[in-house]
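#struct-help
A.M.: can someone run this one for me? Single chain, 325 residues.
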Amino acid sequence: MQNNRALMGTVSLIAMSAAGLFIGAPAEARVTKIQITEKQSPTFGGYVFDKVGAYEKIVGKAYGELDPKDPKNAVIVDIQLAPKNARGNVEYAVDFYILKPIDLSKGAHKAMYEPPNRGGKTHGPLNRGGAGDDPGSVTDPKVLANTFLPPRGYTMIWSGWDYSAGSSNADYNTTITLPVAKNPDGSTITGPAYEYIVEQRAKSYDLSYPAATLDKSKAKLTHRVRLDDVPEVVPASGWTYDEDGTSISLLPAGTEFKANDIYEFHYTAKDPTVNGIGFAAVRDFNAFLRYETKDDAGTPNPLAGDITRIYTEVQSQPGRMLNDF
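D.P.: on it. Structure tokens below:
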């Protein structure tokens, strides 16, 4: 297990998803169910775009499963160790957020898909406004008239893929629910973990994975001000775990991590999630929206038969994800 949360520079790009990225998924890897939890029609406060008309917002959760034996999925690290359903497949779920013309016949039949950056939407610079994690809430006519995508009839799509987005989808944070890998005998997996911590005056730091033990002698926290300084060990009396081993804080209580200083934490963690499933989730959700008419229960695909092209816009970490595709 390893995680590096150092601040990274922003990378912006536009990439067309041709046959390679969002190719139709095989039957052994697909979205099996969509659940619409919110629909606002019209959205954007009822604003009407010339020649396109009004838009609507569709929010929900998509459920998928993967055959771990399929070569397209077998490359995912630890997928063989994930729990399996009665069909022998591995299950996951993602949040999604869609903005689409109410009348798709007036749209461009093209979509902008954005894999969120740690759960957040970043399309504002490309779209010339209408930013934030609930872009459908924008109602200012001057802002909407100047946007790039809606006046051109594009559908806009976001879906979860990234473990670091956390587990809360409050305020339209876009998450993915991933299985926890276990040893073949069902016992807990543990392993060395590393956190690179650069905080902005935080009183605690959430670990990527829970600690396997709260014995502080099995962990080490170091601190330095600059990258070329020699890290100094923070004594065990200077930090503590929370009661369930999912975060650490400095002592005495209330002491903050110094803004922009570098802390490094080495510890033994447990319960690794199968994070590579996020790549398959991007593949299969886009394939569902482009090619399927309904899910297994008969719930209609809200974009059935409309999409002819899918483009993508990314900043920062999602750019590295797409590069790895």
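A.M.: thanks! The two ends are 21 Å apart (CA to CA).
D.P.: also worth noting: Residues 128 and 282 are 25 Å apart (CA to CA).
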